[in-house]
Design brief:
- The structure holds 5 protein chains of 5 kinds.
- Chain B is mainly α.
- Chain B is built from 9 helices and 5 strands.
- Chain B has a single domain (6-187), classed as Rossmann fold (3-Layer(aba) Sandwich), CATH 3.40.50.
- Chain B is 43% helix and 8% strand.
- In chain B, the strands form 2 sheets. Chain B has a 3-stranded parallel beta sheet. A two-stranded parallel ribbon of chain B has the order 1-2.
- Chain B starts with 5 loop residues before the first helix and ends with a helix.
- The relative contact order of chain B is 0.14.
- By secondary structure, chain C is mainly alpha-helical.
- Chain E contains 23 helices and 7 strands.
- In chain E, helix 6 (149-180) runs antiparallel to helix 8 and helix 14 (328-359) packs antiparallel against helix 15 (375-388).
- Chain E starts with a helix and ends with a helix.
- Chain E has a domain at 277-531 and 549-575.
- In chain E, the strands form 3 sheets. A two-stranded antiparallel ribbon of chain E has the order 1-2.
- In chain E, strand 5 and strand 6 form a beta hairpin.
């Protein structure tokens, strides 16, 4: 069993007296667990002595399955890697393929991709914020935020034909152009979401109970967060200005202003607030994107895409998903199918490594909140 | 093998019981589902449960443990590891209990039909009372399925649990075939490092090989 | 002998009546919560359906202690319900608040015993939380009751209810305002609504004590909550809201108390257990103590 | 390439490494297995603090595994792919757990999926798979379709239900549903 | 039978005990049991014989003639009766309990202790009282320290405190003798009551000296530390006696001397708080504090005997509060709670002894699930904790209710709040004991454990019946109090077989029990008409879908017992609970060192050493008084 450093009084108790330790199963069939994942917690009293992560219930062998499917067929597989936030997967995969092909996609396609990515981010953030509420027993936030997430899904449906899995991005651009009047609806939705923010603030972020619960929970320093693979809002909550959209611009982000604010503190409260700040900024980014949306082609003509052959080579492409850096490392041997696709999900470092460090000594009360604050999404751990 | 039709037997039985219809009414109006996201279809459950589609108006709600739940939702594909837990949970549920499969994956494997960790036929392991088409099924489809299931409960047709009880041996055999394997399916793997050698030992070994 | 038989029949009526009232409140409460969350919610009779369904299901038991405990739990709470004056009428003729407080404990003890006999640590954690929380709310509650007790020199709930029957101005809310605040905070914890829903806490300990209850055990668990609602709202109404002269006024007042609790519940998160108890001691406790000091010295 | 890392790497490590710039801000350094940890340590000291993840590629025709560490610097914004090749017969690699502790689950996964052994990693038990006795599944010589058809199909399970009130959709191994 | 029976019931056990020291161990327990039957028989016949006394005169050097008098007062007889009945039950329990180990000479010592106890309750003069008191201290010291080093340490700790109390009492006796010129207790009471108005300083000195002695014996604050050492280390069957009877000597003393003094003092003689003379109010506050401290300590204790020892401390606090109200209700409540505590704590300690006898474990979290294999023990414990928590159909509620009524009568609401806190806390620690020992998962180690042996079970069943009887028909006990109250100069209380009348309301315990039974009947009906139930194995449990064996989780690893109330531990960190303990540890160490010193002087060991110390201090005190 893997144990990080540090010897606590709990260890002492458990060494002296084996019967002081008992086990609690936290997941997979547990309301506090986000998805099909599990921790087996060795407990002393109500404090956690040791954690045994129990991954793999969502393992579908994506990386193997992608090797057996055509380049274009894989597009239907990849959104399923991370269910609440599917579009970053599509974009990352397509970008990697485009990089190996050495093509540059049209400007309009890049903008549309950005819009889709930001919408996906909004939906995922709503789910994440609601998840924090749910983990704290504050179900009203979850119920109310889910309404707005559904409105986003409606727009997705209008754009792509799918509610959850869009399969919208293809190598060379996007599948179809934006329909007429869609952007107006999008802007309306942006206004609605922005007008909702004060209500959510009152319900969740300014709620004294929530502040008491989240404050100081699961603290991680900036240095430690950087060197243990934490990315995305969780890293920004430590005060590190790290954002793939800025660091390694992709899609239309090199042409768009991103004023992401940082919440400092590095604890669960800071992470929750960071999601809220990013949410606000994502709404603004969508407005800017729609405003600057250029005309032109929405995709590159790559011929019959199901007969696509990608030259020998490899490329890593990463995208700022709602939970952090989503990356696809694609290797091609020049054939009709990928030789290897390797996926970097943002949840692995927190869900499989930091849990050992953070959950030790934590009370059982806080496990679900801790998971929600790191936005641990089991599908991208298991793949 | 003798075939039997539990539907007809159950219908005959229910007709004799004057309270049957009333009991079925209470059962259908109060279905509690197990809070278990077995797969990606669970992403459409929050919208179904929450304010927009509001499952609770049908008397349905999530329940934390299998002891309390009536309804097991297999939300999408089922990896072998999850299958074990699903069966464990299903057997802990109290009768009457119903199983609903989401999407095509529980029916025939769906998009994962050739994936090594995902089973293809849920019906071989636990009885399924209702399947919903689509990947993933929309909230409307889910609610529609629930209403259909309610109809079946009222008519006494949702009797998967009776089938499971009666043909437990058959289900158990299938479960064991997948979960309790003792032999490799294709080609067994011999781990060359099964003895957990240390770095020094490995280095020494390699040096020896290169010298030879 | 005949009088005793009649009383027995009446008491059986009260026991089913209290369950029905509690279930009705639970159903209405779910509707209220649903409306706060901007949705339809279940029909108001949903709780009845749920409970009856639970009784038609098969269930499991781990051992005889589980059966004994669960029966003792509901039995204890129903016995408590006999002592709650309903619409200024006490069926047993006496309704000492000390009996109510202590008799309620047997329900809790039975519940605790039954669920921890199931051998699930989740249930035990839930129970240990519930008991710990009891330390938090019982003390402020008792302090306020004691303030009334020294005013009236009687521990009979009926005395308090009758003393407030001269219109809304004579309600104890005005006479013991600090005490009312303390009791309202404590009440939130007594019925286990957020921010004091530690006992259930699905996201932490997967519904705590209910974890191993199935079928009729769960049904009895629901009835337990129903009778608990009846007893505790009835207690508050008799203590502070002037009792009632007729049964419907009583029901409306009782539901009003529950409604307040639910509204707070719907917009609150859950404290950590030690935060919850500290919060109860600091707020409910200090209000209760101030009320007691005030009443003892100037009252 | 703001920090000129390739030039400095060449100067520092000489002929032990082989590096090139693949794409904009994406570099590649190839090195020998026993030199990887030195290189990674040096990179971390050069503020390449972020290890994105590590992956493994099965080059079955060359009878080699390729391990790739993805390293990123928040200062220079460069992404470096550190690559090394292992013998496919007895693949083992030094663990990087002392440089980046969160590499542990990645190594555990690669051990499970490819059979690459990481001496020094404290936990190499199975992570994702249940009761796995076959070849590590991501190796190219493991055919997932054959496995699935041999284990999960109706005829593999002997799926003739003893009741006739439901239909089971039959899929047999003969029915070809290959994606090609 | 004549009044000669009185010295018999005191001296016979003592002499027989000395004789038994050289007898076979197994036989000892039978003699112990049989003699207890005889004693109980004799004591229960005493009541019908009316008032009697036995006088014995001798001359003490320098103080003139000494009249020693044994006699039966209502109060003394009451205590004598309940203690002899309880002793009989415990001795029956011990018969089976001690069938395996015959390590030490507990039975003879215990028999001597019984004699001493009878002596305390029969004494009408301070000399007899003091001699019995000393004998009781010594014998119990050797029983507590029954040969083991750790136990002996506990014994020393216990004796150190006892000794402190004895010193105070001796000083008090001398002062009183000096003032009244008589050794008689009743004259001392009268004189002190008069002195409270005329020589207040002197009277208060005497009262406080005696109070210290009695508080030390009854483990009231600030002497609340010793039971957790002594009860926990004493032999398991003796713990029941220690907690059931011995801790009540102090209560008896308070009832004998302190309470009558204030009852005889006219109102307004001394300043009163809340209608209670201020010394009594201080006693009430100290008792309430004892209750709270005992409760808080019990909540966080892991050792089952220590837990119950702390619970004893908390309950003595209740009794003390009842006494301190000074009303007839409080006086009766204190006595009622004494009886109840004897029954329920006797039952609890008996069941714990049975558990220890079968499993050999004392740490609660190492046990679990014993209810399924030891049902009688479980039910004894269950009824015991229901009574101890003061839940209605059992006896504890009646006495707690009376105590609260006494407090309400005097409007001592803050003390009452503290007691309510202790009462709620009692629920916490008692349930913890119930869960951790008897419920939850049954460890595979104890799968083959059997029910306690027949005589042990029998005595537990008798205790259960007694608890139920006193709970449903409180009049069985409360009806006996009016004689005592009248004898102590207080008004009788209103009580019938079924009901009690307090200051704010009356309560019909029989009615409460019957409506509870009716309600349980209703629920049982619901339970029976509900769906079919099936019994499953203990480990067939909600484990979030995991098979526990996949993770090496057996019953031992699925039982939450250790650090039960850990989340709320932090809430009590501000309480300076450790300070008193530290002080006593220092005192204990000092006494130990002193003992060692004496031991090294006199080669014969501890007994001689202690008598030497005692002699020295006796001489010093006499010198001071002179």
């Amino acid at each position: 069993m893997y144990l990080p450093d540090g010897y606590t009084t709990l260890d002492k108790i458990s060494e002296n007296d084996d019967y002081a330790v008992y086990d609690l199963f936290f997941g997979p069939n547990h309301p506090g667990m986000h998805g099909n994942f599990g921790y087996v917690l060795d407990m002393v009293g109500t404090e956690i002595l040791r954690v045994r992560p129990n991954a793999g219930q969502l393992h579908r062998g994506f990386e193997k399955a992608m090797e057996n499917k055509l380049w274009a067929q894989n597009l239907s597989l990849i959104p399923r890697v991370c269910v609440p936030d599917p579009d970053p997967n599509e974009v990352a995969y397509c970008q990697a393929v485009e990089a190996i092909l050495g093509v540059e996609i049209p400007r309009r396609a890049r903008y549309i991709r950005s819009i889709v990515l930001e919408m996906s981010r909004l939906g995922s953030f709503l789910m994440g914020m609601g998840g924090v509420g749910g983990a704290l027993g504050h179900y009203s936030t979850m119920y109310l935020m889910m309404i707005d997430r559904d409105l986003i899904l409606d727009l997705f449906e209008a754009l792509t034909g799918g509610r959850v899995y869009h399969i919208y991005n293809i190598p060379g651009g996007v599948r179809r152009d934006i329909p007429d009047g869609w952007t107006d609806k999008l802007l309306e939705l942006c206004d609605r979401l922005e007008s909702k923010l004060p209500e959510w603030d009152r319900l969740l972020y300014e709620n004294p109970v929530v502040q008491d619960r989240l404050g100081g929970l699961g603290y991680i320093s900036a240095e430690e967060a950087m060197s243990s693979g934490i990315t995305g809002p969780s890293l920004r909550a430590c005060g590190v200005k790290a954002d793939v959209r800025i660091d390694t611009p992709y899609a239309a982000y090199d042409e768009i202003e991103i004023n992401s604010k940082l919440s400092e503190g590095g604890d669960a409260l800071a992470r929750a607030v960071q999601v809220r700040l990013d949410f606000e900024e994502a709404v603004n980014i969508i407005r800017r994107l729609v405003k600057q949306l250029p005309d032109g082609d929405y995709k590159l003509d790559l011929g019959n895409i199901s007969k696509l052959r990608v030259p020998k080579g490899d490329a890593y492409s990463k995208v700022e998903a709602s939970k952090g850096e989503f990356g696809y490392y694609v290797v091609s041997d020049g054939g009709l199918k990928p030789y290897r696709v390797s996926v970097r999900g943002p949840s692995m470092p927190a869900g499989m490594y930091l849990c050992h460090k953070h959950l030790r000594g934590m009370k059982i009360d806080d496990v679900a909140v801790w998971m929600a604050s790191f936005a641990i999404c089991p599908p991208d751990i298991d793949r | 093998m003798e075939m039997d039709n539990l539907y007809l037997a159950n219908l005959r039985e229910e007709k004799q019981n004057m309270w049957g219809g009333l009991v079925n009414y209470f059962r259908k109006r109060s279905m509690w589902m197990l809070y278990y996201c077995t797969g990606c279809g669970a992403i459409e459950l929050p919208p179904t449960m929450t304010s927009r589609y509001d499952m609770e108006r049908l008397g349905m709600g999530p329940m934390a443990t299998p002891r309390q739940a009536d309804l097991l939702l297999i939300t999408g594909y089922l990896s072998v590891k999850t299958l074990k837990r699903v069966i464990w949970s299903y057997e802990q549920m109290q009768e009457p209990k119903y199983v609903v499969g989401f999407g095509s994956c529980p029916i025939n494997g769906g998009i994962y039909w050739d994936a090594y960790p995902v089973i293809n036929h849920l019906e071989a392991f636990i009885p399924v009372d209702m399947s919903i088409a689509g990947c993933m099924p929309r909230p409307q489809a889910i609610i529609d399925a629930f209403e259909k299931l309610m109809g079946e409960i009222q008519e006494g047709k949702a009797i998967g649990y009776k089938r499971y009880e009666k043909h437990y041996d058959w289900y158990k055999k299938n479960q064991d075939a997948v979960l309790g394997r003792t032999e490799a399916v294709l080609k067994p793997w011999n781990d060359p490092f099964a003895s957990n050698p240390s770095v020094d030992e490995l280095m020494a070994l390699e040096k020896g090989e290169s010298n030879v | 002998m005949n009088a005793y038989a009649l009383l027995g029949i009446k008491l059986i009526g009260v026991s089913f009546g209290s369950m029905a009232v509690g279930l009705l409140f639970m159903g209405l409460g779910r509707k209220v919560t649903a409306r706060i969350q901007r949705r339809m919610g279940p029909p108001f009779y949903q709780s009845f359906i749920d409970v009856i369904k639970c009784f038609t299901k098969t269930s499991i038991t781990h051992n005889f202690v589980m059966d004994l405990g669960i029966i003792m739990a509901l039995g204890g709470l129903i016995a408590t319900a006999f002592f709650i004056p309903f619409a200024n009428f006490s069926i047993l003729g006496s309704s000492s608040v000390v009996i109510v407080l202590y008799l309620m404990s047997i329900g809790y003890l039975g519940m605790a015993m039954g669920v921890s006999a199931s051998g699930n640590p989740n249930a035990t954690i839930g129970i240990s939380r519930a008991l710990a929380l009891m330390m938090g709310y019982e003390i402020p509650f008792v302090m306020v009751i004691m303030a009334m007790l020294i005013t009236y020199n009687s521990s009979d709930l009926l005395t308090y209810a009758v003393a407030q029957s001269n219109g809304i101005g004579s309600w104890h809310i005005w006479k013991y305002p600090l005490g009312f605040i303390a009791v309202e905070i404590a009440f939130q914890a007594m019925v286990g609504e957020a921010p004091y829903d530690h006992m259930i806490a699905p996201a932490e300990i997967a519904s705590g004590p209910m974890v191993e209850l199935s079928g009729k055990y769960l049904g009895i668990g629901f009835l337990l909550h129903a009778v608990q609602l009846y007893v505790e709202t009835g207690l508050i109404v008799n203590l502070f809201l002037g009792g009632a002269s007729s049964w419907y006024v009583m029901l409306v007042k009782m539901f009003a108390v529950y409604f307040t609790t639910l509204s707070i519940n719907a917009v609150m998160a859950r404290y950590r257990i030690e935060q919850g108890i500290r919060h109860l001691w600091i707020w409910a406790g200090s209000f209760g103590l101030l009320q007691l000091i005030y009443t003892r010295i100037w009252g | 390439m703001s920090d000129n890392i390739l030039a400095r790497a060449g100067k520092m490590h000489g002929d032990k490494i082989e590096c090139r710039e693949k794409y904009k801000a994406q570099l590649e350094i190839k090195t020998h297995r026993d030199y990887v940890l030195n290189l990674l340590t040096w990179l971390k000291s050069e503020r390449y603090v972020h290890l994105s993840f590590m992956s493994c590629i099965d080059w079955i025709e060359e009878n080699e595994f390729e391990l790739v560490w993805h390293v990123f610097s928040y200062e220079s914004k460069n992404h470096i792919l550190v690559k090394t090749r292992l013998n496919r017969e007895k693949p083992w690699m030094h663990t990087a757990i002392n440089i980046w502790p969160h590499v542990q689950p990645y190594e555990q996964e690669i051990h499970e999926m490819f059979g690459v052994y990481f001496p020094g990693n404290p936990d190499l038990s199975g992570l994702f798979l249940h009761n796995w006795l076959d070849l590590p599944p991501l190796r190219k010589d493991f055919i997932a379709k054959d496995y699935s058809l041999a284990l999960y199909t109706t005829d593999a399970l002997g799926l003739t239900p003893p009741f006739d009130d439901i239909d089971i959709v039959e899929i047999t191994a003969e029915e070809s549903r290959d994606g090609e | 039978m004549t009044s000669n029976m009185l010295p018999f019931i005191v001296i016979a056990p003592v002499l027989l005990g000395l004789l038994m020291l050289s007898m076979p161990k197994r036989l000892n327990w039978w003699i112990f049991f049989l003699l207890n039957i005889v004693l109980a028989g004799v004591i229960f016949t005493l009541k019908s014989k009316g008032a009697m006394s036995f006088t014995f005169q001798w001359t003490l050097f320098g103080t003139g003639k000494v009249v020693q008098k044994l006699g039966v007062t209502p109060l003394g007889w009451f205590f004598l009766a309940i203690s002899s009945a309880a002793t009989l039950l415990f001795s029956m329990f011990s018969l089976d309990f001690n069938d395996k180990k015959h390590s030490t000479a507990i039975a003879p010592l215990w028999l001597m202790l019984v004699g001493a106890t009878n002596g305390i309750f029969l004494s009408q003069d301070w000399i007899s009282f003091f001699i019995s008191w000393e004998l009781m201290s010594w014998t119990s010291l050797f029983i507590i320290g029954h040969g083991k080093t750790s136990s002996f340490k506990a014994g020393i700790y216990y004796y150190a405190l006892s000794f402190f109390g004895t010193m105070a009492m001796m000083a008090g006796i001398w002062l009183l003798f000096h003032r009244t010129g008589s050794w008689e207790i009743s004259s001392g009471v009268l004189k002190t009551a008069q002195d409270l108005s005329s020589h207040r300083g002197f009277a208060l000195t005497v009262l406080s000296l005696f109070t210290v002695a009695f508080l030390a014996k009854s483990a009231l604050f600030p002497f609340h530390m010793w039971p957790q050492m002594a009860h926990a280390e004493a032999p398991d069957d003796f713990s029941a006696y220690l907690s059931g009877i011995m801790i009540k000597y102090g209560v008896y003393g308070l009832l004998l001397f302190i309470v009558p003094v204030f009852a005889l003092t006219p109102r307004g003689t001394i300043k009163s708080i809340s209608g209670v003379p201020w010394p009594m109010y201080i006693l009430a506050v100290m008792s309430a504090l004892t209750s709270v401290i005992g409760t808080v300590m019990a909540i966080f204790t892991n050792d089952m005997k220590k837990l119950m020892a702390w619970s004893t401390v908390a309950n003595v606090g209740y009794i003390g509060v009842g006494l301190a109200t000074g009303t007839s209700l409080g006086y009766a409540a204190a006595m009622f709670h004494t009886v109840n505590h004897m029954m329920f704590k006797g039952g609890i300690f008996a069941s714990l002894a049975a558990v220890k006898y079968r499993t050999g474990e004392r740490e609660m979290h190492r046990l679990g699930g014993l209810a399924y294999v030891m049902p009688i023990t479980f039910f004894t414990f269950l009824l015991g904790i229901i009574a101890a928590a003061g839940i209605p159909p059992l006896s504890g509620f009646n006495s707690k209710w009376m105590i609260f009524q006494a407090l309400f009568e005097k409007k001592m609401v803050f003390v009452a709040t503290a007691l309510f806190f202790a009462s709620t806390g009692a629920f916490l620690y008692l349930f913890r004991g119930l869960h951790t020992i008897f419920l939850g998962q049954l460890s595979p180690r104890f799968r083959n454990v059997k029910e306690a042996p027949p005589l042990m079970s029998l005595s537990m069943i008798v205790l259960m019946i007694l608890m139920l009887a006193a709970g449903i028909f409180p009049g069985l006990v409360t009806g006996r109090f009016n004689d005592i109250l009248v004898a102590a100069g207080l008004n009788p209380i209103k009580t019938t077989l079924y009901s009690m009348t307090g200051s704010t309301t009356s309560i019909n315990s029989t009615l409460v029990a019957s409506v509870f039974a009716l309600a349980v009947g209703v629920v049982f009906f619901l339970f029976v008409i509900g769906g079919r139930k099936r019994r499953v194995k203990m480990m067939d449990n909600y484990t979030c879908g995991e098979d526990p064996l996949d993770w090496n989780v057996g019953p031992d690893r699925y039982h939450y017992g250790y650090d039960f109330y850990q989340p709320i531990k932090g809430l009590f960190s501000w309480m300076p609970l450790g300070v008193v303990e530290k002080g006593y540890n220092a005192l204990g160490r000092f006494m130990e060192r002193l003992g060692n010193l004496v031991t090294s002087i006199s080669a014969d060991g501890t007994r001689l050493g202690w008598s030497f110390v005692l002699g020295v201090i006796l001489i010093i005190v006499i010198g001071v008084v002179k």
